[in-house]
Amino acid sequence: MTETTERAVAERVPALARETLRVVQRRGPLTVPPGTSLADCLRVIQRSGVGDSVLVTDGQGRLAGVLTERDIFSRLVGEPVDLRRPVESMMNREPRTFRIDETVHDAIWLMATGVYRNVPIVDDDRRLVGIVRQVDILKYLAEAFPEELLNLPPRPHQRMKESEGA
Degrees (nearest 5) of the Cα angle 158, 159, 161? Predict the structure, then answer.
């Protein structure tokens, strides 16, 4: 990027980071009710086609807990586990959450410092309203700079000696 472009990006990023999570396009979360077996949770994740978390919600849509892919890999791999056990036996009952009016900066900071990749979004009654993922934040930021990203060389540190087609 040229110095002018770098300056333009540096000037726009703080404003983008102050936006609330409402502006970030998100996919719906993977949810299961309490009592769902670990095997069924794994099937939900497999069917989704993405490495993800399973959010456990009660009958009123309140977040009861989260079973992350990290939980699955750290606890299920290498040791015998009864996959008929309910998700409550392994889920995090006090997951970190966001409110929809928290900022993109808050999400970036937590994901960078807290090693979170997926964070549920809840309302004041702890009802699940969505989930924000690292990829959602990256897409939001990338969409704010289409010209800068589309004009990058295949290898960003590459410097061309002459213009293409010259």
Answer: 135
Under 8 Å CB-to-CB from 48, ≥6 apart: which residues?
Answer: 30
Identify the CA nearest to 21 among candidates 134, 87, 103, 143. Answer: 103
CB 132 within 8 Å of CB 20? no
pTM score, two decimals? Answer: 0.78
Residue with tokens 């966001």: 98
Summarised one tens digit per residue, pLDDT across range 129-148 is: 999 999 899 888 888 777 66
Q: How far apart are the first and last CA of the chain?
A: 20
pLDDT band per the 50, 70, 90 thresholds, residue 158: low
Distance (Å, whole) CA 166 – CA 156: 21
Q: How far apart are CA 62 and CA 26, in angstroms?
A: 19
C-alpha distance from residue 161 to each of 2, 95, 145, 153, 166 (Å):
15, 51, 25, 12, 11
Q: Which fold has domain 3-150?
A: CBS-domain (3.10.580)
For residue 131, give both structure tokens.
Answer: 């989930």
100 band by pLDDT with thresholds 50, 70 and 90: very high
